[in-house]
Amino acid sequence: MNQDDTGVENGDRALLEKLQALNTVGTISYVLHLIVAIGALIPGGQFGPVLLIAALVLDLVKKDDAEGTWHASHFRWRIRSVVVAGLLYLLTVPLWLLFLFPGWIAWTAISVWFLYRIITGMVAMNKGLPMEISA
User: Fold this and answer.
1) What's the half-sphere exposure (Cβ side, CA atoms, 13 Å) at 132?
2) DSSP assignment of 51-110, as one string?
């Protein structure tokens, strides 16, 4: 491999640039998810569906770029978090239609869980650690 004037091999530089780009995409995605998660807990703050869709599309488009790196686990983590939360919200819609209070409790619990997942992922990514995903 060729070395540039800083002594860094070109292959290492390319990998470093790829990881930095993935870190930037991951940070943007986590921030969008975080805005949505906090908005879901604030009464009247449900401004996040568009941001959530944007973050999900970003993750789906960029996840192939992360294959073979520790960032791939973060893409899976965020995508799974959105899909599971979405399914749980859909399953609990009847609670809102039948009983207001149980629906509110269910959606609050889902929103807290989603916020926990996003914060956990952000902390791990900032430490440079992959997410542990159980089978």
Assistant:
1) 0
2) HHHHHHHHHHHHGGGGTTSTHHHHHHHHHHHHHHHHHHHHHTHHHHHH-HHHHHHHHHHH
Count of all residues that appear for the chain in the document: 135
Token pair recorded at residue 61:
């488009």
Read off φ and ψ for residue 3, nearest 5 degrees.
Answer: -110, 145
3-state secondary structure of 128: coil
pLDDT band for position 1 (cuts 50, 70, 90)? very low
State how far the alpha carbon of 8 is from the alpha carbons of 14, 70, 91, 116, 128, in Å.
10, 21, 53, 39, 21
pTM score, two decimals? 0.81
Give CA–CA dist 62/81, Å, rounded: 16
